[in-house]
Design goal:
167 residues, alpha/beta, four-stranded parallel beta sheet, 50% helix
Length: 167
């Protein structure tokens, strides 16, 4: 006859592995680090689970790297860019963001036995990039922090509020 405590431990372990694919938007902030800790507790000891760490670059910020060839054309420099220059900027910006993501998260991922995927996505906006990535990769849950700026701030455009309503 098994000990009662052994049964409880088994049941507890099973409840910790409800999710196999968890997305954690990660920008290195304290709320993002806390969200990573929560996500780790959900899947860290499940080698079949995947933890996706994502940094989203808004497409609009990449436009600042291009100068319009003709200032009379207006402010759409990305449409005028040389395709090779465009690819070069995209690659350098995503490589830099991926390096920063790894730098900020690697210490927190020590001892994790699940699969960890670190990625950078480009989205029309950060919330759209998070939701699109989660859908594209079949993520079951998005674990993200919030800065605690109150309900009014949420209605005015916080990332976590937007993701909550879009996901």
């Amino acid at each position: 006859m098994p000990r009662p405590g052994a049964q409880r431990r088994t049941a507890r372990k099973e409840t910790r592995m409800l999710y196999k694919k968890i997305l954690v938007p990660f920008d290195g902030s304290e709320p993002a680090r806390h969200a990573l800790e929560v996500a780790k507790n959900l899947v860290a000891d499940d080698p079949e689970a995947t933890l996706y760490l994502l940094n989203v670059l808004p497409a609009g910020t990449l436009a600042s790297h291009f100068d319009s060839a003709d200032s009379t054309q207006g402010s759409t420099p990305m449409l005028l860019a040389d395709p090779n220059a465009y690819q070069s900027v995209i690659k350098s910006e995503t490589d830099l963001a991926l390096s920063k993501l790894a730098e900020g998260a690697d210490d927190a991922l020590a001892g994790v036995s699940c699969c960890v995927v670190k990625d950078v996505a480009i989205g029309g906006s950060v919330p759209d990039g998070i939701v699109d990535y989660g859908c594209d990769h079949g993520c079951e849950i998005i674990v993200m922090g919030r800065r605690g700026l109150g309900g009014l701030r949420g209605m005015l455009g916080s990332v976590s509020y937007s993701v909550l309503h879009s996901a």
